[in-house]
Amino acid sequence: MAKHTDATTAFDLRLKQLSAVQQRQEQRRRALEHRRSRREDLRRKVLVGAVVLARIEQGLLQKSVLKSWLDPAISRAEDRALFGLDV
Predict the structure, then answer these.
(1) 76 falls within a domain
(2) Which domain holds residue 19?
(3) How many CA atoms lie within 13 Å of 50's alpha carbon, on the beta-carbon side?
(4) Are 76 and 82 contacting, i.e. CB atoms less than 8 angstroms apart?
(5) Of 34, 70, 32, which is closest to residue 52 (Cα–Cα)?
(6) Domain-located, residue 21
(7) For residue 48, is it within any domain?
């Protein structure tokens, strides 16, 4: 009977180890997905900003229109100063 108990204990221990490995792998996968998602979000924002600034330079969009979009959306003083908005 002792052999059976030892085998069960060893099996339980191995099951817990495998479960811990699986949890770490899942955490790593989620972290990588989160980083990829943030990278893609930043890239979209940079590209949209580049397009908007190019349109302003080309005269296809008025700077005042951009400022009217930014004014209600930006609250930090240093960010407002960056775009020439009243602080």
Answers:
(1) no
(2) 2-60
(3) 6
(4) no
(5) 70
(6) yes
(7) yes
pLDDT class of 2 with cuts at 50, 70, 90: low
- Percentage of the chain surpassing pLDDT 70? 95
SS3 83: coil
Residue pLDDT, tens place only, 11-47: 999 999 999 999 999 999 999 999 999 999 999 999 9
Token pair 């339980």 is found at 12
Q: Give dist(CA 26, CA 32) in Å, integer.
A: 10
**Count of domains in the chain?**
1
- Cβ contact 85:74 at 8 Å: yes
62: left (phi > 0), else alpha (psi -120 to 50), else beta? beta
CA distances from 54 to 24, 40, 49, 71 (A): 45, 21, 8, 20
- What confidence tier does 1 reach under pLDDT thresholds 50, 70, 90? low
